[in-house]
Amino acid sequence: MGQTMPIKAILWDCDGTLVDSEPLHQECIGAVAASHGAPLSHADIKRFLGRTTAEIWDYLKTERGLTLDFNGWRDAVHAYYDANVMEKVKTRPGVDSQIMIFAAMGLRQAVVSNSTRPLVDASLKVIGPNNLLEFSLSMDDVGKPKPDPEPYFRAALKMMLPPHQCLVLEDSPAGARAARAAGMRVMVWPQDSELVYDEIDYITDSLTTPDWVRIIRKRRKPKPLIARSLAAGIPPDQVDQEEPDDAELETHPAAAPKSD
Questions:
Q1: What's the whole-number mean pLDDT along residues 170-179?
Q2: Is residue 260 part of a domain?
Q3: Rounded to whole angstroms, how far apart are CA atoms 208 and 255?
Q4: CB-based contacts of 253: which residues, under 8 Å, 6+ apart?
Q5: Cα 240 to the chain's mean position, in Å?
Q6: What domain range is 50 assigned to?
Q7: What confidence tens digit (pLDDT) does each residue in 26-44 have?
Q8: Residue 115 and residue 177 in one domain
Q9: Are 180 and 198 a contacting pair, CB within 8 Å?
């Protein structure tokens, strides 16, 4: 077995993964909606996890009678969030140190978010070592947001890496679905224990639980769908010859490979 690490990059989701921003996002949605003719319950707001600003606006406009047009909604949400982010948004436990650990391991890192550019930029301000994150992609940078795989394909292309050499950290089912569709390995770190995920590779309750060295070194052959991303411009890379035996996989119950 060679010395090259099969995983060369970590792609972080932003909201709910890097930063505990969902409470403020929910507060933004509730406050702005209530101020413009569309009061919401907590259950109503929870359904928007992983949804884009446009999708939320469309639902509120068509189903709840929101009086704002899209630009007005977007501007109001941005203003509310930016005014409160430094006070109310914190990184999730262990994020700052894990970013530095990944960097020390020689792993490149970037952010792939379904939020708009102003919201992503505001959230990144609360991350200490954000200089170790090469770039961020927002929904404004892609044609189709998550759960479409385009955001993750674009991140791999920007890094000039094949998707199978990227490990994605996500909290939402939509984001995990996008990463898997892009041919990447996925670890979910949910905040809501009731969320149901499609096929994923790992699930954890903490960034300190996984055996990161074993996960990063795990060899994987690219799936056939990778050929489509290679045709789009992502460079080929030497394919590792074999997967490790099942006995070599991470076995901690909170960070074990997810069963089908």
A1: 95
A2: no
A3: 10
A4: none
A5: 26
A6: 22-88
A7: 999 999 999 999 999 988 8
A8: yes
A9: yes
